[in-house]
UniProtKB/TrEMBL annotation:
It comes from the Bacteria. Residues 1-29 are annotated as: Disordered. This is Type IV secretion protein Rhs. The lineage of its organism: Bacteria, Pseudomonadati, Pseudomonadota, Gammaproteobacteria, Enterobacterales.
Length: 29
């Protein structure tokens, strides 16, 4: 996966908030 850490749904993001499904900018693909 291009060597970057993958954020999972429920993990805390760098913005200090939980990841929500369908959130822009957190999709990996």
């Amino acid at each position: 996966m291009s060597g970057k850490p993958a954020a999972r749904q429920g993990d805390m993001t760098q913005y200090g908030g939980p990841i929500v499904q369908g959130s822009a900018g957190v999709r990996i693909g």
